[in-house]
């Protein structure tokens, strides 16, 4: 079997177009949705992602601003910057790019962001809402994966889903979203004794680890949907995922490429959450993810 390649870039553009309509409706009523991105230090990969985020906001006609802060900024000064953005009526979404330098507590930073402006969905309140099944701002990457699955008409209910990776930003929320959609979910980690045993059970396999070539064809069930979240740069400067794309595409039913798979969807979901935040804060529009 040769897999259908899921065109994340095209689906991400389509999703962006739908949210542009909602942004335009807000703008017609005098509300310009605004996103503030804070980036601490100069990690080159983070800069690329932030640039992509700003470009996407621009494409949809949103306001965006980037606050570049030095790596040695104190935690107190960073928190003050977030509080100022919390109080700024022109800003509806706040995103602090991770990872942060070691002397700054991720938890403290994420808890300082106003829950109503938490477009990453990383605040404990929003994570709690996700656990309870009434999400306000779904974390962008796993929500992007869910949308790719749904756009491709891959069934979730009753299917075996396996998520490799248990981070708070990808693996854990991904597993919860699939659980809410009725999948039977397993979560694998670096401690899993026989990773291939689990991955071979998967009708839907989501991989978010950060290790190139981790998933090979022998670990994949014939016809499975394989969603590769991993982003790794090889020594030659090439961008690759966690899945051995060339071999796995001969066995899977569907597969996402890297680049051009999950990454562009993450960015579209950030646009979506920013428009959603602007709707909620202004009391205009539906304020709901799905407004149909
Ligand atoms: N496309 C996109 O939009 C995004 C891509 N990414 C990419 O996704 C990848 C994962 O990111 P993130 O979740 O933040 O990473 P983390 O480093 O926070 O988590 C990695 C997870 O992988 C697990 N793991 C490590 N080695 C293995 C192994 N051999 N077998 C099974 N599990 C293993 C770890 O297990 P344990 O907990 O036991 O240590 C951990 O749970 C990265 O490549 C990142 O760049 C991230 C965010 C967005
Ligand atoms: N607070 C926070 N929120 C995040 O959402 C967040 C974060 N921190 N830290 C880092 C990760 C990583 N991440 C990506 C976003 C876009 C691409 C992306 O656009 N990828 C393109 C290619 C990009 C390239 O050329 O390097 C693609 O896969 O096609 C990738 C990765 C968001 N993250």
From TrEMBL:
One of its GO terms (cellular component) is cytosol. It catalyses: (6R)-5,10-methenyltetrahydrofolate + H2O = (6R)-10-formyltetrahydrofolate + H(+); (6R)-5,10-methylene-5,6,7,8-tetrahydrofolate + NADP(+) = (6R)-5,10-methenyltetrahydrofolate + NADPH. InterPro entries: Aminoacid_DH-like_N_sf, NAD(P)-bd_dom_sf, THF_DH/CycHdrlase, THF_DH/CycHdrlase_cat_dom, THF_DH/CycHdrlase_CS, THF_DH/CycHdrlase_NAD-bd_dom. NADP(+) binds at residues 165-167, 231. One of its GO terms (biological process) is tetrahydrofolate interconversion. Residues 139-280 form the Tetrahydrofolate dehydrogenase/cyclohydrolase NAD(P)-binding domain. Its EC number is 1.5.1.5, 3.5.4.9. Residues 6-120 form the Tetrahydrofolate dehydrogenase/cyclohydrolase catalytic domain. It comes from the Bacteria. GO terms for molecular function: methenyltetrahydrofolate cyclohydrolase activity; methylenetetrahydrofolate dehydrogenase (NADP+) activity. Pathway: One-carbon metabolism; tetrahydrofolate interconversion. Keywords: Amino-acid biosynthesis, Histidine biosynthesis, Hydrolase, Methionine biosynthesis, Multifunctional enzyme, NADP, One-carbon metabolism, Oxidoreductase, Purine biosynthesis. Homodimer. Belongs to the tetrahydrofolate dehydrogenase/cyclohydrolase family. PANTHER family: C-1-TETRAHYDROFOLATE SYNTHASE, CYTOPLASMIC, C-1-TETRAHYDROFOLATE SYNTHASE, CYTOPLASMIC-RELATED. Catalyzes the oxidation of 5,10-methylenetetrahydrofolate to 5,10-methenyltetrahydrofolate and then the hydrolysis of 5,10-methenyltetrahydrofolate to 10-formyltetrahydrofolate. This is Bifunctional protein FolD. It comes from Methylohalomonas lacus.
